[in-house]
Structures
1.
Amino acid sequence: MKIIPLLILFLSLSSSIAQEQIDYIECSQELLSRIKNNEPIETQIDILSASSLEELTSQLTTDAQKKAFWINVYNAYVQKILSEQPELFNPDTRGQFFSEPRIKIAGELLSLDDIEHGILRKSRIKWSLGYLKKWFNPEWERKLRVNKIDWRIHFALNCGAISCPPIAIYSADELDEELDLMATAYLKEHSTYNDATQTVKTTALMSWFRGDFGGKSGAKEILHSYGITPEVPESIDFKSYDWTLSLGNYKSL
């Protein structure tokens, strides 16, 4: 008669140990890698769906860990969703594509906007140029979001458009170097400098989220410090963004 209680205890402990052994950053990397290589992703999707807020907050304790995990998850789900439903990216439904909750993680159903603006941009209002913060935020957002906004995430997140930065698989241990590499490469490709007028023309991302970059003056300083311009520009203009759907734009780190 004692066998059944002992069996239940054993199964409970086994389940607890199995949960503790899950490396969620590694899971996010594996998910993105498998999508890149057209391999099955059901296991990784199930792991993320079954994760709890407590598990994620206990494992993602630093901003580097949070950024690596959520950037990988964001990029993976963009590729997954749009490969299955490319029609969501047309001009009439693109806003809904980003705002509709469809990603189950930590006991919540999250949208791409939740991940980008709630977690990675520390509860910023999407259409405020990066200057306004949301007043009311759910508990999961407060617990999962970064402590400090890192402007380099804008050159790591791929939303599925031609003008988006390429997709890389990020790690927490080398995140600074990886984000610097991707930001520099993207800005070099998407910026032009006029020596005569000391004017730089660069990506619209620096305009849409200008508060994250420290305003126009901060953006100009960044472009100079990252070697994109030979000096701090006198003025800055922004290029138009090509929203044509383009999937599978991967880059190795």
2.
Amino acid sequence: MKFINIYKTLDKIAYIQKKDKADISKSAVVIMCADNGIADSSIAEIAVKTAGGESEYSRMAKAADADVFTLNAGIRDKAMSEWLIDRKTADGTENIMYKPAMSDESMAFAVRSGIEMVKSLKIGDYKIIGASSINSGGNIPMEAVLYALTGYNAVSDCAKEIVSKYSFKSVNRILSTVGSFEIAAMSGLFLGGVLCDMPVMIDDDISAVAAFMAYAIEPKVKNIAVAGCCQSEISRQIFETMNIEPITDIQTERTVEGVSVALAVMKIALAAFKF
């Protein structure tokens, strides 16, 4: 593992924060949880465990000394926990093989939920936010959004088939038609970062696509987005387009691990080298 851009990233964070040095003394990982209609399963149980600090997702974030905020953006089944923030408008999305994922109104609510989350964390004096998710349906909605936005060809045939069924009059319509609640809510985190001068860290491919969606809506997103690592060539292509350099060359398949590793590395660097 090579920490190839850690000081560039710290400089960027300082610039976003309008400070001489980066301040990551109080960090948060926001985990957007939602089900997708293309899947039969539900992530209700793991979302509840994560909200209560009992899952691998929350333990990894805690290991990096980050507070975890788990948000129900659209879980299909009942997910009851006093620690789970309820921003649900529907029991998951529709099956995008046959119907648009969500209404424009539900999509807008999910995006606003992300924006409002950043505003709340800013008031709480948090310095940096990690954008992550737990979802059902795998990568299909993420690939469909990316393919509809860019025509990037290295996605599944399923995603291509889905996109071919629809026409899109706007970027927002791409999100509501073939997207997902977790992508919409994470897009809101990046848009909120622009409004609040808050650095928002990209975790995996799904959060990278959420950042790219936000960037398509508001190009200033590239100024507040920072990247932990490249999960795959999808993230790499997005980072190149947005001119973002990831901290490490590590590849990860775990949702919160990328955020946690990146936050931990930055904190070690600050302590060891007195950045």
